[in-house]
Amino acid sequence: MFYLIGLTAILMASSKVRYDLIALFVLVTLALSGILTPTEAVSGFGATIIIMVAGLFVVGEMLDRTGVARTVGDMILKQGKGDEVRLMIPLCVGAALLGSVMSSTAVVAIFIPIVMRIARDTGINAARLLMPMSFGALLSGMLTLIGTPGNLAVSDALRDATGQPLGFFSFSVIGLIVLAGTVLFFALFGRHLLGPLMADGSDRPRRADRSFAELYHIHGLDRVEVLRVEQAFTGTAAREVERNAPRILARRRRGPRGNPHTALYSPGMDFQQGDLIVVTGSDAQLAAFSGLPGIEPVQSFFNDMNTWIDTLGILEVMVHPEAKIRGRSITELEFRSRYGLEVINVLRGTKPLQEMETTPLKAGDRLLVTGKWTRLDEINSTGRDFVIIEEPAERAQSVPNSNKLWIAMIILFAMIAVSIGGMSITIAVILAAVAAVMTGTISTNQAYGSIRLETLVLIAGMLPLAQALDKTGGTQIIVQNLLSMAGEESPRAVMFALFFMTMALSWILSNTATLVLVAPIAVNAALEMGVSPMPMAIAVLIAGSAGFASPVSSPVVTLVVGPGKYTFVDFLKCGLPLTLLVMATTLFVIPLVFPF
């Protein structure tokens, strides 16, 4: 059994084999060797943690698609002001505090889209933010009694032996000290071990993609303005507005429930009081048009991107060399009805076409097109007519279902509330995932597409290791050897042995399984030595949430392996120093707070 564990660690450390394949190798080996029956070997796929993690992926996708992730990310960005450390601290501390009252696995799944959104907006390497966040969530088990189910096992062991269980905040001061040390570790040292600062490999902020404004300017459209219609125009009056407008691109109107609806402009549209319209043209044209009665300038379209980005996008596309549409004009193609998009400008070489509506298109012509993102994404999937050349940097900020943000918020807070109130977190997550689909915040296909199978396979494949280690007696061998090495003369030495044993086992077993196993041993060892069992119990409780050095120690850290593109070595580089720091801190502080 120990050979299998060693080989698994070597394969993970090599970074040459995918983690999910290693997990499947472990599963198959346990079954073929007879250590576990085939049913026991695949039992991990039926574990509640697998169902919960799958549901949390759906909830995370809902948060991203409705703008909750962007909203929270914007708040953190505003506070962080683009500085990596000021971004990392609220992510780490926030995950720890939230995880102290709900499932830390759920917290990480909720925070992943938020971190990825921040990384896209700033260009910062996501790996330098995801690991501190996940470690913060892991530390949540040190803050409250319900931070992790394993804490209840420690409390039960104390109650059975002394009649005095742990209180809700009995050990919070220790956890807060460890959390502060972890934040300091990453702020001063740890983050530099996780790759370059920027996602593009550089050590300074750089944005490679052009912005909306830059794409417009390339096509000679320096003036794009947002105007407000102050009175209704219908029929003949509306047609008069059309004739005087240089070029209207889109109209936004408030719906019956106050939700804004944006539509590409088409001839024959009417105008209601309060409508916003996007217009482009020369300075003289825009000045003349905005001076008409009933038309009020608002601001430059480029200064108002956040309110339009979700529904009105742009792309620069090129006519494919083998396109069937070559030799046909935009008018002949009936471009709007065919693609659901509006052509703003056409460049041939570096010069715009003067009569772009009627000039036959040639291979290599570059079109600037606008419309809904869903239609823009489809433009290169309708045959081989176009190739997408460039999309604006702001594309990453778009949220397809921003009008359902409050529905997503209600689902999220309801999930948290019922789980804190006593409902199984797994059931709460399933209900939230179903509600996300039923309310239309995401589609069924999007929900299934959000589930990362490689993560589920990794977790499910490694879970049977705990059962196999216990079944073969390996767990008892580890416990007995460590306690015999520590001796019984020094309570602090025994505490160190218990801490190390708990931490090491948590890299192999689940946090809960480890604490269920070790907590009674720690309490009984203290009673036999004639010292208070409280410091021993607190030491193993803290160690149970210190599985920093292994990517499979807990689903809390396993979840970020894929998004962060981490290797086993990454966890060793940050996890081992942090583990030593936590060990030294807790072994020094615990006897001061809880004397022997």
Automatic annotation (TrEMBL):
<feature type="domain" description="RCK C-terminal">
    <location>
        <begin position="302"/>
        <end position="385"/>
    </location>
</feature>
<feature type="transmembrane region" description="Helical">
    <location>
        <begin position="493"/>
        <end position="523"/>
    </location>
</feature>
<dbReference type="InterPro" id="IPR036721">
    <property type="entry name" value="RCK_C_sf"/>
</dbReference>
<dbReference type="InterPro" id="IPR004680">
    <property type="entry name" value="Cit_transptr-like_dom"/>
</dbReference>
<dbReference type="InterPro" id="IPR006037">
    <property type="entry name" value="RCK_C"/>
</dbReference>
<feature type="transmembrane region" description="Helical">
    <location>
        <begin position="405"/>
        <end position="438"/>
    </location>
</feature>
<keyword id="KW-1133">Transmembrane helix</keyword>
<keyword id="KW-0472">Membrane</keyword>
<dbReference type="InterPro" id="IPR051679">
    <property type="entry name" value="DASS-Related_Transporters"/>
</dbReference>
<feature type="transmembrane region" description="Helical">
    <location>
        <begin position="535"/>
        <end position="562"/>
    </location>
</feature>
<feature type="transmembrane region" description="Helical">
    <location>
        <begin position="45"/>
        <end position="64"/>
    </location>
</feature>
<keyword id="KW-0677">Repeat</keyword>
<feature type="transmembrane region" description="Helical">
    <location>
        <begin position="574"/>
        <end position="594"/>
    </location>
</feature>
<dbReference type="Pfam" id="PF03600">
    <property type="entry name" value="CitMHS"/>
</dbReference>
<feature type="transmembrane region" description="Helical">
    <location>
        <begin position="166"/>
        <end position="189"/>
    </location>
</feature>
<keyword id="KW-0812">Transmembrane</keyword>
<feature type="transmembrane region" description="Helical">
    <location>
        <begin position="135"/>
        <end position="154"/>
    </location>
</feature>
<keyword id="KW-0813">Transport</keyword>
<feature type="transmembrane region" description="Helical">
    <location>
        <begin position="21"/>
        <end position="39"/>
    </location>
</feature>
<feature type="transmembrane region" description="Helical">
    <location>
        <begin position="85"/>
        <end position="115"/>
    </location>
</feature>
<protein>
    <submittedName>
        <fullName>SLC13 family permease</fullName>
    </submittedName>
</protein>
<dbReference type="Pfam" id="PF02080">
    <property type="entry name" value="TrkA_C"/>
</dbReference>
